[in-house]
Amino acid sequence: MIHRAAQLADHEAALKGDMSGRRRAILEKKRLLLFKELLVEAGSNDVNLVEDICNGFDLTGKLPEFNQFDKKFRSPPMPCVA
Predict the structure, then answer these.
(1) Beta strand spans in 1-82 (E)
(2) Cα separation of 59 and 78, whole Å?
(3) Going along 32-74, which residue ranges are E strands?
(4) At what angle do helices 32-41 and 9-17 cross, to 10 degrees?
(5) Distance of alpha carbon 23 from its chain centroid, rounded?
(6) How far apart are CA 11 and CA 1, in angstroms?
(7) For the segment 1-30, what is each residue's pLDDT rounded down to a tens digit?
């Protein structure tokens, strides 16, 4: 894994170069492309997870479908205020 991460280092830097400064600071030590390869290798149904991490997502409101778990509706314990 360390060797593969080193092979992906230039692509990883390019991916993070397009991020905002704050997002880049948070994700700078994460090996996102290696993580994506591992998700694919594991047969995960959530193939867009790395893109969601890179682009960001809302912490409140309706969550996007992850395709990894059965669908289940739960009403929020408190209302979401935008």
Answers:
(1) none
(2) 14
(3) none
(4) 110
(5) 12
(6) 16
(7) 999 999 999 999 999 998 999 999 999 999
14 in Cβ contact with 33 (< 8 Å): no
- Can you tell me which residue has the tokens 């905002």? 20
- Residue 56, CA distances (Å) to 3, 5, 24, 30, 77 in order: 28, 23, 11, 14, 24
Q: What burial letters (b/e) apply to 16-35, b meaning 16+ CB within 10 Å?
A: beebeeeeeeebeeebbbbe
The whole model's pTM is what?
0.72
61 secondary structure, DSSP code:
S
* Rg over CA atoms, the chain: 16
In whole angstroms, give the CA distance from residue 43 to residue 51.
Answer: 17
